[in-house]
Amino acid sequence: MPLASLAKVEQNSCYWVVRSYSNTNGGLLKVRIDLEICQGQGRCFSIAPSIFDFDDLGNGVVIGDGTLNTDTLALAQLAQANCPEHAIFIEE
Ligand code: SF4
């Protein structure tokens, strides 16, 4: 089961916020952006500039190979929950 489906998110006044998350099988998790879906709204690199950057067209890109650790997982999930295009995927 993808981790993203395990995240519990709730809507704050302006953003969706991650309230809890878990990784049931301890597998390596990576974040990626589907550039066919991304429309360059910029929330990902505003929320998590240590994980996401933007390309010459203003679309979001993942910094490095996208591997997440316990520190970056929640931040990546927060960006995922706030992507208006649902272009961010967290997968094993
Ligand atoms: S928040 Fe979503 S749509 Fe906006 S740049 Fe990031 S991936 Fe693309």
List keywords for this structure.
about 90 residues, two-stranded antiparallel ribbon, 6 strands, about 20% helix, about 25% strand
End-to-end gap: 9 Å
Number of strands: 6
Helix tally equals 2
**Main β sheet profile:** 2 strands, antiparallel
Structural class: alpha+beta
Shape: globular
Low-confidence stretches: 1-6
The CATH architecture is 2-Layer Sandwich
Order of helices and strands: EEEHEEHE
- Stated plainly, the CATH topology is called Alpha-Beta Plaits
Rounded mean pLDDT is 83
> What percentage of the residues does DSSP assign to strands (E)?
25-35%
Number of domains: 1
Quaternary structure classification: single chain
Task: Write a brief caption for the model.
The protein has 92 residues and is an alpha+beta fold. It has helices at residues 43-47, 70-82, and strands at residues 8-11, 16-20, 30-33, 52-54, 60-62, 88-91. The chain is built from two helices and six strands; from the N terminus they run βββαββαβ.
